[in-house]
Every structure is written in structure tokens, then in C-alpha cells.
């Protein structure tokens, strides 16, 4: 009933709004062509059709055909070598992805070419940008090093989300979603289209809620996206405001290893359970993030285009924890002798600013119109305040409200300059050259060699060259070759939890890609061979450094190599099909593991040779088959399409660390999804789209993520006291947590366009 009432009210509102707008919205064809509309922002980081970089494009139409309320990682599931995961188990809340085994900190994300990765942790938290998929006009995923981009170095992939397209005509869209686990989404979008004065406005407001598959893994997400644009024949100006607020109950501890095979405990969540009785109700992550983007493009003489971009991101929020039996001295407090420990509630805050600018100067017609040149770069600064507050203590009554027990600030600056050249010395041959220089300056509070906590500065300079070629055998077939180098600096913890003597070195990657691709009117095919060769790749090895912290260390030599296949097309008038598969070997030549001895506090060294890299499945395959049941169009403008599709995805075994130990691994899994789509044109409004999905149709039980910590103990068996503990062999144990994904569950969406 609520859904019907909301839809009816919105429809009435839109009818009035459109009538008012009719007199103001003339045909904008005289202003810009369709091609110019899609090039409102020069995408300096985007790969073109003849680029030697393997990439996958997702159009707005593709995204809307499958989008309910799930996050971006789940919408990109068809990308070769990609594995998606969700803390809450159902695709909302905290989600992540890995591409070719590279974790989110090694995947570069941009919005209209503006960097999104957190400057310090280098990760991307999709939960901070609710319903972002509702605004994108295209997503491009480049695998491997990719072309030069802004922000942190891309080690596994680059994901570029394009929000810049201006729709030609006015529109209004309502989307309502319902699904398992109390999932619901309500979204409203309005746009004026391009008016006769060259101005366009649009707005989106969204609310998403889910209880999650995992106990208490609720998420409440609110998002706003406002845009304004001005276009004429020679210039364009576009402004974006994206604001997101999330309040998500923590589920990042994972399921205890001992509960993994117990169906009744599969949704258990340890977060908040340090509180006696009922779990702490506010064991939440609460964060607000706002992006301000400014894009100005100007057409210069001689087919040159200049793009200037400014950005500012404001983020602030905390995660709250109930902690039992804490030593007050660890929080800078001293109580009576009988009250040296206490239950307490703490909040760990992050209050940051990220600002800067990028530019791109491009011409597609130089050197006898056979060469395109793009000069780009950017400068960014991150200011982050990290502090912790005590909001309640059971025993120590003298603590003031919001008492800060730690407080420090970080300042990170990043600048890069790159030049890209593409030239065609002959009709079928395209050559590619991409040269980038990137500098990083990081000021932070860390330990010096005398173990004093002092302010420090680190300066790094990287040179990232890339070359490639594309050869067209025919209008249908292309082959390509790419060789690129990338560097990536350590993250915040690597800096702050070490001394200059123990600080890890930056990572270096040499990436080779070669392959063929074919595109016909009804089919497409590509085969890509890749090699990724690392020096000083960072990995946890269990070692404790000179300040007593478990920190990542440099692995001298490691590599990834494999084959990626993609194909798709249409057979006849009704059957569509698509598939991808990746086969890879992901190895560390020699890995030294350091295992804690709980009896005497020492560490034992274990040497592993030719082991698998963590979270790097050797096979990832996906197949999709669709059938069109009904398709009709007539001269009145009314039409419709009813189709169904079945998707199957297979992921082979993954290891939780770099030891190739079967006892700390994720088993292989095969998951199938069913989707029904019904589109009705001009029946009520412009279009109605109905989407119904049954995910994990065969109720597969699987885990897509986890963690592990190994130790030895002769005198103590931790298993009765800690459900995360398991015995491996002899006196070797491990603690492990797993992230189970939901069994069979459904989602239904109605999208109504006016």
C-alpha cells in the first residue's frame, strides 16, 4: 500500500511539473550533437576503442537492466577476473571487489577522472556513496596497469565512473525496490533536459535500507546527487554535488571458524557482543561524505580542447565499539587500584578534507591529422584528523564527555603529469605512448628509530611509462600489445606503525598485455594474455616490526600470469548469450612466514616456496544466457519487451594468506542467478521497467572473503574460549573469520520514467 501511495503522489507531482516546463524546453538539437553531449567532460583517463589496454564498458542501459539496490562491485560481476564480496552477505552495506586478485587498495577509482580512493588507506568505501549506480552514464573497467590516471597507482585495475552526460530531454524517474532481508530502496530523479538557453539541471535523492543476511548487519544509506550544466558550441561547465550518509552495523569481524559448518550459527555476528546481555545496539559505522566536482571544457583553435577540473571532498564520521575489561592506562586514565580496568564505549573518528584539481589538453588532429596528443595531470591534497573519544566508562566516572585519548593529523600531497600520444603511421596500425611522473609527499605522526612518536615526512617520486600498439587485420579483427610500469606507495599503517629503519619500500609492477578482439554486428570476442611481475609487493607475513606492530613487508619477487576470454552475442531473434573466463597462476617465489609462539612470545620462521598469492583464484568464469519471450512495437509508440536470463559464476579456491595452506582457504563455489525483465514503452508515462531477480537460485552455501592468523601453543588450547580458533596440526592453531554470502534471496524493482 505504501508503494502504491508513493507512486501515485509522485506521478501527480510530475504531471504538474512537466506542464509547467513545456513552454521552456525547446528542441536543443541546434546547440549540440549527440556526440558532443556524451563528451561534456574530456575523459583523460579513458581507454578508446583502439587502445591496447584490455577494458570493459558498461552503458547506463546495461546497468539499469540489472540494478536494484546492490553496490557497484556486484554490478561489475561480469568483468573477467573479478570477484565481488559483501560483509553483510547480500550486496548492500560494506562491499568490495578484487580484480586479478588485487584488493581494493590496488584498484584505482575515479569519478569523471577525479580520484576517489582514500589517500591514506588507498581503499574505496562504496557504502559512502549510496545509489551511485543510479547516476552513472558509463563505467569503464581497465584491467592491469591501464592508462595514466589521477590518484593512487593502479595495480590491479582502474574503474572510471562517468557522471557527466547531459540528457537531451527532460525526464523524471521513480524507482522502488523491495527484497529479502528487509531490503528496500526509494529513489527519485528529475532532470530539465537541455533547455534552449544551454542550461540543464538534474537531481537524485535516494534512500536504501537493508537488515543484511548476517545478524544485525543493517545499513541505512541516504544519497543526494545534484548537477547543473551549461553548454554552447565552444564550451561547457558542469557542477556536481554528491552527498552520502551511511549508518551501518559492523559486520567486519566475519563468522568464527568453528561456526562455519553449523547452519544455525551461519549468520552469527560477533560485533557488539563484548557487552554483557544483549549486544551493544550502537556498534555502528557512521560516516558522511560529500563530493564537489567542477568541470570546465573549452574548444581552442586547431581542434584542441582544454579541460579544467576542480574537486573537494569532505568526510567525517566514526565507528563505535563497546569494549570490555579495558586497561584505563591505555586510554591515558588512572583510576583507583581496584578500578584499573573498565568496560567502556569508544568512538574512533576520521575528519578529513581532500581537494585539488586536474587538467587535460587534447587534440585529435596533429601531425597531418594522424596523431592525437593528450597532456594531463593533477594536484591533490589530503588533510586527515584521526582521533579517538571515550563516550562512556563503567568504572572511571571522572572521564569528561567525549574525552580524546589520541589525536593526530596527516597531510598527504600528490601531483602527477602525463603525456599520451596515439599515432597511426599506416592505415591498420595504431601506436600508443603514455609517460607519467608522479610525486607523493606524506606528513604524519610515526615512530623514529629511537621509538619516539614524532612528526615525520616522506617524499616519493615515480616514473610510470607505458607503450602499446593496436593492429587491425580487418574491420572486424584487432590485435594489440601493451607494456606498462606502475609504482604504488605504502599505506598509512605501513608508515605510522614502523620506523624509518623498518618502513617498507614502495611496490613496483611490470605489466604485459597482449591479445586479439573481434566485434561483429551480433557477436563479439576477445582473448587476452597478461603477465604482472612485482618487485617488493607488500604482504602480511606475521612478522612484528621494531615498534611491536604486525605490518606488511616487501616480498621480493611475485607474479601473476593468465588468459582472459570474453564473448557474447545474439543467435536468432530471441537468444542472447555472454560469457567470460580467466585462467591464471598467481605465485610468490619465496614467502617467509613468521608464526607467533604463545608460550614464550617468540616467533618461528617458516619458508614457503612457489606458493599462491592470497585471494587469487586460478579460475573465474561466468556465463549468461537470455531469452526474449515477447517483443512488440507499433506505430503508436507503444511497445514492450519481456525477457529472462540465467547467470552462473564459478570461482575456484582462494587462500586467505600466502602459504597455500588448505586449512585457511575459501572453497570453490558456483552461484546461479535468475532475472526477469519487463519493459513497457508509452503505456503509462514514457517507460515502465520491472526487474525481478532470484539470486543464488540453487541456494549454494559459500564464503567470498575471510582472514586468518596462525600461531603455536603447547600449554594452552584456545578453542574452548575462542570460537575463531581451530587446530591445524600438532600444536599449530589459527584464528580465522569468514564472510558467508546469502543463500537464495530475491529482489524486485519498478522503474517508472515520465
Write a brief structural summary.
By secondary structure, the protein is mostly beta strands. The chain starts with a helix and ends with a strand.
Question: What does this protein look like?
Answer:
The chain is mostly beta strands. Helix content is 5%, strand content 57%. The strands form 4 sheets. It has a 22-stranded antiparallel beta barrel. A 5-stranded mixed sheet has the order 1-6-7-4-5. Strands 2-3 form a two-stranded antiparallel sheet. A hairpin with a 4-residue loop joins β20 and β21 (477-488). The protein starts with a helix and ends with a strand.
CA distance, first residue to last residue: 22 Å
CATH architecture descriptor name of the largest domain: Beta Barrel
Instruction: Using the alpha-carbon principal axes, give the shape.
Output: globular
CATH topology group of the largest domain: Maltoporin, Chain A
Helix content: under 10%
Extended strand count: 36
Features:
22-stranded antiparallel β-barrel; 5 helices; 57% strand; 2 domains; 5% helix; mainly beta
What topology does this entry show?
Elements: H1 2-21, H2 34-38, E1 55-59, H3 60-64, H4 72-75, E2 82-86, E3 95-99, E4 107-111, E5 114-115, E6 138-143, E7 157-162, E8 171-179, E9 183-191, E10 199-210, E11 219-231, E12 235-249, E13 255-256, E14 284-300, E15 304-327, E16 341-366, E17 371-393, E18 403-423, E19 429-447, E20 453-472, E21 477-488, H5 492-496, E22 507-519, E23 523-544, E24 550-571, E25 575-597, E26 603-612, E27 619-633, E28 639-651, E29 654-655, E30 665-666, E31 669-681, E32 687-695, E33 703-712, E34 725-729, E35 732-740, E36 745-753
Amino acid at each position: 500500500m505504501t508503494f502504491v501511495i508513493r507512486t501515485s503522489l509522485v506521478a501527480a507531482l510530475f504531471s504538474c511539473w512537466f506542464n509547467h516546463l513545456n513552454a521552456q524546453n525547446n528542441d536543443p538539437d541546434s546547440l549540440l550533437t549527440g556526440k558532443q553531449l556524451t563528451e561534456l567532460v574530456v575523459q583523460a583517463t579513458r581507454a578508446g576503442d583502439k587502445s591496447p589496454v584490455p577494458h570493459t564498458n558498461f552503458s547506463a542501459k546495461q546497468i539499469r537492466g540489472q540494478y536494484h539496490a546492490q553496490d557497484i562491485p556486484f554490478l561489475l560481476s561480469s568483468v573477467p577476473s573479478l570477484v565481488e564480496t559483501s560483509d553483510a552477505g547480500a550486496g548492500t552495506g560494506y562491499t568490495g571487489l578484487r580484480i586479478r586478485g588485487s584488493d581494493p587498495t590496488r584498484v584505482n577509482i575515479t569519478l569523471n577522472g577525479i580520484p576517489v580512493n582514500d589517500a591514506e588507506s588507498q581503499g574505496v568505501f562504496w557504502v559512502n556513496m549510496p545509489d551511485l549506480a543510479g547516476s552513472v552514464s558509463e563505467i569503464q573497467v581497465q584491467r592491469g596497469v591501464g592508462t595514466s590516471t589521477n590518484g593512487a597507482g593502479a595495480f590491479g585495475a582502474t574503474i572510471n565512473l562517468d557522471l557527466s552526460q547531459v540528457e537531451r530531454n527532460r525526464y523524471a524517474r521513480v524507482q522502488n525496490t523491495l527484497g529479502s532481508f528487509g531490503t528496500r530502496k526509494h529513489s527519485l530523479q528529475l532532470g530539465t533536459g537541455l533547455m534552449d538557453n544551454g542550461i540543464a539541471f538534474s537531481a537524485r535523492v535516494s534512500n536504501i535500507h537493508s537488515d543484511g543476511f548476517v545478524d544485525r548487519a543493517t545499513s541505512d544509506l541516504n544519497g543526494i546527487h545534484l548537477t547543473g550544466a551549461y553548454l554552447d558550441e565552444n564550451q561547457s561547465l558542469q557542477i556536481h554535488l554528491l552527498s552520502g550518509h551511511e549508518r551501518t552495523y559492523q559486520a567486519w569481524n566475519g563468522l568464527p571458524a568453528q561456526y562455519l559448518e553449523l547452519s544455525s550459527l551461519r549468520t552469527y555476528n560477533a560485533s557488539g557482543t563484548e557487552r554483557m546481555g544483549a549486544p551493544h545496539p550502537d556498534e555502528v559505522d557512521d560516516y558522511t561524505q560529500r563530493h564537489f566536482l567542477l568541470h570546465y571544457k573549452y574548444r581552442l583553435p586547431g581542434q584542441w580542447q582544454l579541460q579544467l577540473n576542480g574537486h573537494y571532498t569532505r568526510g567525517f564520521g566514526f565507528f563505535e565499539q563497546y569494549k570490555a575489561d579495558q586497561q584505563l592506562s591505555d586510554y591515558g586514565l588512572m583510576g583507583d587500584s581496584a578500578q584499573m580496568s573498565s568496560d567502556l564505549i569508544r568512538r574512533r573518528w576520521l575528519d578529513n578534507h581532500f581537494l585539488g584539481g586536474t587538467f587535460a589538453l587534447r587534440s585529435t588532429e596533429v601531425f597531418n591529422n594522424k596523431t592525437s596528443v593528450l597532456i594531463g595531470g593533477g594536484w591533490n591534497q589530503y588533510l586527515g584528523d584521526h582521533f579517538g573519544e571515550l563516550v562512556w566508562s563503567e568504572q572511571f566516572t571522572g572521564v569528561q564527555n567525549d574525552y580524546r585519548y589520541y589525536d593526530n593529523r596527516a597531510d598527504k600531497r600528490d601531483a602527477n603529469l602525463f603525456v599520451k600520444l596515439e599515432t597511426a603511421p599506416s592505415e591498420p596500425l595504431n601506436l600508443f605512448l603514455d609517460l607519467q611522473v608522479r610525486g607523493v609527499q606524506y606528513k604524519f605522526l610515526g615512530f623514529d628509530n629511537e621509538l619516539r612518536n614524532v612528526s615525520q615526512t616522506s617524499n616519493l617520486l615515480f616514473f610510470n611509462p607505458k607503450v602499446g600498439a593496436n593492429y587491425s587485420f580487418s574491420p572486424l579483427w584487432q590485435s594489440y600489445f601493451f607494456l606498462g610500469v606502475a609504482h604504488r606507495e605504502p599505506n598509512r599503517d605501513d608508515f605510522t606503525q614502523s620506523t624509518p629503519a623498518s618502513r617498507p619500500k614502495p611496490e613496483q609492477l611490470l605489466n604485459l598485455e597482449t591479445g586479439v578482439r573481434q566485434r561483429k554486428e551480433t557477436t563479439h570476442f576477445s582473448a587476452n594474455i597478461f603477465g604482472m611481475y612485482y618487485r617488493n609487493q607488500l604482504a602480511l607475513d606475521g612478522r612484528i616490526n621494531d615498534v611491536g606492530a604486525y605490518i606488511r613487508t616487501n616480498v621480493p619477487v611475485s607474479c601473476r600470469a593468465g588468459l582472459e576470454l570474453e564473448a557474447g552475442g545474439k543467435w536468432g531473434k530471441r537468444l542472447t548469450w555472454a560469457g567470460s573466463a580467466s585462467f591464471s597462476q598467481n605465485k610468490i617465489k619465496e614467502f617467509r612466514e613468521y608464526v607467533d609462539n604463545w608460550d614464550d612470545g617468540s616467533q618461528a620462521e617458516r619458508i614457503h616456496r612457489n606458493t599462491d598469492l592470497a585471494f587469487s583464484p586460478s579460475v573465474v568464469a561466468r556465463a549468461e544466457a537470455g531469452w526474449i519471450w515477447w517483443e512488440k512495437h507499433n506505430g503508436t509508440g507503444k511497445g514492450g519487451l519481456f525477457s529472462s536470463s540465467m547467470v552462473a559464476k564459478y570461482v575456484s579456491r582462494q587462500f586467505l594468506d600466502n602459504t597455500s595452506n588448505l586449512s585457511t582457504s575459501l572453497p570453490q563455489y558456483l552461484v546461479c542467478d535468475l532475472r526477469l525483465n519487463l519493459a513497457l514503452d508509452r503505456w503509462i508515462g514514457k517507460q515502465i521497467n520491472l526487474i525481478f531477480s532470484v539470486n543464488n537460485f540453487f541456494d549454494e552455501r559459500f564464503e567470498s572473503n575471510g582472514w586468518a592468523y596462525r600461531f603455536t601453543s603447547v600449554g594452552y588450547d584456545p578453542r574452548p574460549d575462542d570460537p575463531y580458533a581451530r587446530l591445524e596440526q600438532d600444536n599449530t592453531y589459527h584464528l580465522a573469520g569468514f564472510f558467508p554470502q546469502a543463500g537464495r534471496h530475491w529482489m524486485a524493482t519498478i522503474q517508472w520514467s515520465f
